[in-house]
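Archive maintenance. Older records in this collection stored only the sequence; we are now back-filling the structure field for every entry so that each record is complete. The fields below show one back-filled record exactly as it appears after the update. Entries are processed alphabetically, and EF-hand domain-containing protein is next in the queue.

ARCHIVE ENTRY
Title: EF-hand domain-containing protein
Organism field: Pomacea canaliculata
Length field: 206
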Amino acid sequence: MGQKSGKLTKQQTQSLRQDVSFSEDEIQDWWQEFIRSAKVSSGSKPFLTQKEFIEVYNTVYPGNGEEYAKHIFRTFDKNGDGRVDFREFLLGLSITSSLEEEKKLRWAFQLYDINQSGFISKDEIIEILQAIFKMNGLNQSSTKSAGLGTPEELASSLFEVMETDGDNSISWSEFRSGATRCSLIVDLLQCSPGSEFEAVLKQHSK
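Back-filled structure field:
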């Protein structure tokens, strides 16, 4: 995948299909989206830095999503080199759109676990929720007027449901178990910006 333009070869798309749920046509479509912003260094595959990744993300999901996209980038950048190549990009997209609940939960846990400690703190939940609210153009006054909770209020409620062993942090097992009792923490990551986001919030605010 060293080319900067054109289509992927049949061999390349077939290789990628072994790891993702997309069709060959969908892979080609994502490749075209990817290379519009990708950089190429001498001897390397095309890649996105955080800056370019945010640009691509905002193209697909219009809105004030810069802070949220930074967190998405972190989960896509599997080797932590500050770059996302096309395979990492496609693998990340495949997981976030997967119908397999366990995969989505694993990804959601990684997203909330900002410092990659293996545990989630209340402050980390607040930071992610604030980014999601910002992407949807919601602030404290607008959420209150709409009868929705603030990020801080939602984080406290979620933390109370999920944190069960008294150590003031959420482990993977607590997260997985808690998500079955309160789906909001994952639902907010899956819904589209705008009316769908507010509908999910209102549903859980009842």
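Update note: Residues 192-197 have pLDDT under 50 and may be disordered. The first helix runs from residue 10 to 17.
Entry marked complete.
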